[in-house]
Amino acid sequence: xxxxxxxxxxxxxxxxxxxxxxxxxxxxxxxxxxxxxxxxxxxxxxxxxxxxxxxxxxxxxxxxxxxxxxxxxxxxxxxxxxxxxxxxxxxxxxxxxxxxxxxxxxxxxxxxxxxxxxxxxxxxxxxxxxxxxxxxxxxxxxxxxxxxxxxxxxxxxxxxxxxxxxxxxxxxxxxxxxxxxxxxxxx
Length: 187
Known about the structure:
Blueprint: H1 4-26, E1 28-29, E2 38-39, H2 41-69, H3 83-86, H4 90-109, H5 114-140, H6 144-151, H7 156-186
Antiparallel strand pairs: 1-2
């Protein structure tokens, strides 16, 4: 069971990750022929899962999504509002919820080792793509080939790189957080 200090620390880090996810959404590179841009928000979602685990990672993602749903400009391109959930990229946003839980659980099973984080990240992004591509297909009224060509295939190399970066960064960040926590309990 978490102590009060651990809960407070995790809540603060979850809020920090919600902010990082929001900033990552602003770094959006449009791809011609698709309404889905390349963004860094999913890298921060992956990292939140690896650092915070499934439940605090979920808190970070839900906080981010609620901020966007109420109209804060935290989604890709500085947009917000419930209408984003109904649009072609809404499935990706909704997919972040089960993905962060799955990544957090799988990462913890592997004791946050970088190679296990890679597998967890791939599984999580597969969940995001499942929701995202299905929504994209439904909203744009295209066949599966077109939905995959515009909502999945162009993003695979970049997402593999983001998973690798998050997987490599997570262990030293967790170690640093552990050392900070030990110092604060010893003080």
